[in-house]
Amino acid sequence: MFSDKVYWLLVIILVSIISFYFFWISGFNYFFDDVYVYLSYSESLYNLGYVQDLTTIPPTAPITTQNGVVLLYTILNYVTNDMLTKMQIVSFILTINLMICYLLIYKIGLLLNISKNVLYILIVALIFNFYFYGYYVTPTNDGFYISLLLLSLYLFLKLSIKNNTNYWMILLVIALLVPMFRLQGLIVYIAALISFFIIQKEYKKSFIIFIYIVLSFLAVKLSIKLLIDDTSGLEELSKMLIFYHLETFYDSFQEILANAIPSIFLNFPASNFNSDAFVYIKILFSALVFIFLIAIFIESFKKKNLIVFTIVLIVFGNFAALILFNVIIDRYIYINAIFIILLSLFYMKRIYHMYFVVGFLLLSLLSFGARIYYKQYDSINVINNIDYIDSTYKSYNLISQFPRQTYFYLRKQSILNQQYIDTNLPILIIGDEKFTNHQIEILIQKKNKIITKKQLTLIWKKENTLYNTTELYIKDNDDW
């Protein structure tokens, strides 16, 4: 068997190779979405002193308080203006961060008395889980959030065994930082507060954690005051909470059962399997997961097992956050799959541990191979389109159906309101037929005469949809 140092060295090499493939070779960087708006936020913060969405003309208010990665991009603006380079630098940092995540999962596994050899194979299986790269190395907030979540959990579990002042200081720093990356990071603190209060009856520790939670929310308020000038986007976002849409509760819960939970275990979108038979199988599987979690929640409470009780609370908290924010996205609960696997190993007889993790490794290799073989990132076409537009048009108006992508591709804002169109310049409309026709109708209603209309041979792909590029020259017959 490899020594610990050799094993972790091999982990570093393997993670680096896979990450390098996805974020430097495969073209994966050309198919992000949130990343591009974070880049625009950072450009705004760097140039204007506050966060604004610059992907459109006119700019719009930001729709998130979670601007941790925006601050990092803003710092990188002092190093380079190239958006792709900034993304790759952050992906490099997150690759290192991912290795820390694996180490923390390993250490949490040890606290659950899972053997080193079993955890070694488990970590290798996780290395071949594409979602770890797709969610935690993609240069957004999620990778930083997940490492802070795991570190805070590990420190709380260690504090349940022995008090340590240094741990408390680190947890204070994390409490102030983690909401900048994702508010769900506070679920660990809430779970720890409940566990110390109910299981260990450590009221002093619970009170300290409560103070940390209060300080964390105050830090969020301060970040809004310092970074965001227009809060109308946040006000609109708050209206998405389930309290405003109680009628969607059942549908949201069904979506969690039918797609979100199966996806985190399949390492693949479960929505791709939507025949009636598959839907029933997915819901049955998710129901069994919930039954398992409820059973060990009750058992850990009875036996006063703080470690298991805390982890189960975090899992339930992550599920509840999906419902609360009314946003059913599997990446927000992907870490739950890891926690559930660790808990399954904890309750499983040791003679089955190796069979379980080897089976999980084979499943990971299968899904990872399918992802490499079948997933095509058509970045060459995107780059060719960019080169053509850059070489053909010195100046032009851009109207795009997906302004975040075209902001990154073309380094240009997309016009939302046609009063900002310069009629002396050509117009490029990027979108499907319905979108393009609608934009042309608006132009005509403004009493503009279309002089020429030509569909270019530039096709863009976003997810499974193809978008055309139309060139227009117009004559302004009247004032706007």
From TrEMBL:
The reply on keyword Membrane is yes
Question: Where does the source fall among the domains of life?
Answer: Bacteria
- Transmembrane helix as a keyword? yes
- Keywords for this entry? Membrane, Transmembrane, Transmembrane helix
* Positions of transmembrane segments: 6-32, 89-112, 118-136, 143-161, 167-199, 206-228, 277-298, 305-325, 331-348, 355-374
> What name appears for this protein in its UniProt entry?
Dolichyl-phosphate-mannose-protein mannosyltransferase
Source taxonomy: Bacteria, Pseudomonadati, Campylobacterota, Epsilonproteobacteria, Campylobacterales
